[in-house]
Specification:
The protein is an alpha+beta fold. It is built from two helices and eight strands; from the N terminus they run E-E-E-E-E-H-E-H-E-E. The strands form two sheets. A six-stranded mixed beta sheet has the order 1-2-3-8-6-7, with helices on one face. A two-stranded antiparallel ribbon has the order 4-5. It comes from Thiomicrorhabdus heinhorstiae.
Length: about 130
């Protein structure tokens, strides 16, 4: 059984996808970019502002599904410039505690809305 997860505390889907899908105790989180939910505009400023916004967006979807960022088992990070990898690590440490999720970070040529960072993940809920 698949359940659509949706919240107005994160950006609404801008394509043919759901914010997240829960199947059993597993939640598949769609990619989040640094969109501010209220305006649907990218967070202005340096990349660190958008990285924080991405984690806030992911957190909102996790909460809507009954979990938290700590329940993310696998996190995927997409960057248009790998020179920002250290910044991602610094900011990620503000949102996660050990044990950290499994993770991949890859460089990509381009992301939606020409942003510089996107993240998606898989969350496993302990009590569902």
């Amino acid at each position: 059984m698949r359940e659509v997860i949706s919240t107005d505390q994160a950006p609404q889907a801008i394509g043919t996808y759901s914010q997240a899908i829960r199947t059993g105790n597993t939640v598949y989180l769609s990619g989040q970019i640094g969109l501010v939910p209220e305006t649907m505009e990218l967070k202005e400023g340096e990349i660190d502002a958008r990285i924080h916004q991405v984690f806030q967006n992911l957190s909102a979807v996790c909460q809507a599904a009954g979990g938290t960022l700590q329940d993310i088992a696998k996190l995927n990070i997409f960057l248009t410039d790998m020179s920002h990898f250290a910044t991602v690590n610094e900011i990620m440490a503000q949102y996660f505690q050990q044990p950290y999720p499994a993770r991949a970070a890859v460089a990509v040529k381009q992301l939606p809305k020409n942003t510089d960072v996107e993240m998606d993940g898989v969350m496993v809920l302990s009590s569902y």
